[in-house]
Write a structure and sequence with these properties.
This protein is of the alpha/beta class. It is 47% helix and 12% strand. It has eleven helices and seven strands. A five-stranded parallel beta sheet has the order 2-1-3-4-7, sandwiched between helices. Strands 5-6 form a two-stranded antiparallel sheet. Helix 5 (95-112) crosses helix 6. The protein is globular, with a radius of gyration of 18 Å. The relative contact order is 0.15. Bound molecules: 2-acetamido-2-deoxy-beta-D-glucopyranose (2 copies). Residues 197, 221, 223-224, 234 line the site of one 2-acetamido-2-deoxy-beta-D-glucopyranose.
Length: 234
């Protein structure tokens, strides 16, 4: 009897749906990033929780209540934590400092019990000319890629995939994702509601192809994925 109960508990734990928590800066938040768009592309996860915080680096995020909440969330088995920093780190530290800090942060996420999923940054929609983006996040994202390779961790190439999309779209169309598109139209970093949908889909499709354990929890939208591949907005 005791054995059967233990076996049942074991099977239940093994079959429990995974959870995902999102850690990062403003470009991940529900209000100005891809977080809510991504979560709405999932189905059946135990939890998809946005714990990002605006203005934070891989260092200052560790002073937030979101980080405390994340460490508690990581105690639940089968929890994946996406980690996307770089936008604010770029303003205050060198690429080598960023690497050291992101390694340290990633180790803390692992120690808390989560499976980390590193991500490169969402591209800024700055252009040199209509179809030539002016990216300055590349050197920082290269460090994120190095960490993933050196530590054998999962990596979502959001910078490359978002750059690819906005390059095809061009400057004029890309600005339609600006948080302030309807007013001043100068915020090329943060996303409006349309942006939540498109860049949330890019992340969802990355997770589907790169994180096998989460792949069946991503709801496909072939029309939207096709539009992104073709460089158009529906
Ligand atoms: C796919 O995404 C588009 C754009 O957001 C939406 O209009 C459409 O309803 C979605 N289709 C499915 C099947 O979810
Ligand atoms: C920073 C952010 O966008 N936080 C939101 C993440 O998602 C939860 C649950 O949907 C919201 O309550 C937070 O405000």
């Amino acid at each position: 009897m005791l054995f059967r109960l233990t076996l049942l508990q074991f099977v239940t734990a093994a079959l429990a749906a995974p959870s995902v928590i999102l850690l990062g800066d403003s470009t991940v938040t529900d209000g100005a990033g891809w977080g809510a768009g991504f979560c709405s592309d999932t189905n059946g996860l135990a939890k998809c929780q946005n714990l990002s915080s605006s203005g934070k680096t891989s260092v200052t995020f560790q002073g937030t209540t979101e980080w405390s909440t994340a460490q508690t969330a990581c105690k639940t088995a089968n929890t994946y934590a996406t980690i996307q920093f770089g936008h604010n780190d770029q303003k205050v530290m060198t690429v080598d400092e960023f690497k050291t800090n992101l390694v340290s942060f990633t180790n803390k996420v692992i120690a808390a019990g989560c499976t980390p999923v590193l991500m490169t940054s969402l591209a800024r929609r700055n252009f040199n000319s209509e179809y030539v983006p002016n990216d300055i996040l590349g050197p920082y994202s290269a460090k994120t890629i190095e960490i993933a390779q050196e530590k054998g961790l999962l990596l979502l190439p959001l910078l490359a995939d978002s750059l690819k999309y906005i390059t095809k779209l061009g400057r004029t169309q890309s600005y339609r994702f600006n948080l302030d598109y309807d007013t001043t139209n100068v915020d090329r970093t943060h996303l409006n509601d349309l942006g939540h949908v498109y860049f949330g889909r890019i992340v969802a499709d990355e997770v589907k192809s790169i994180v096998p354990a989460l792949s069946s929890y991503i709801v496909a939208n072939a029309t939207l994925s096709g539009a992104i591949a073709n460089g158009v907005i529906l």
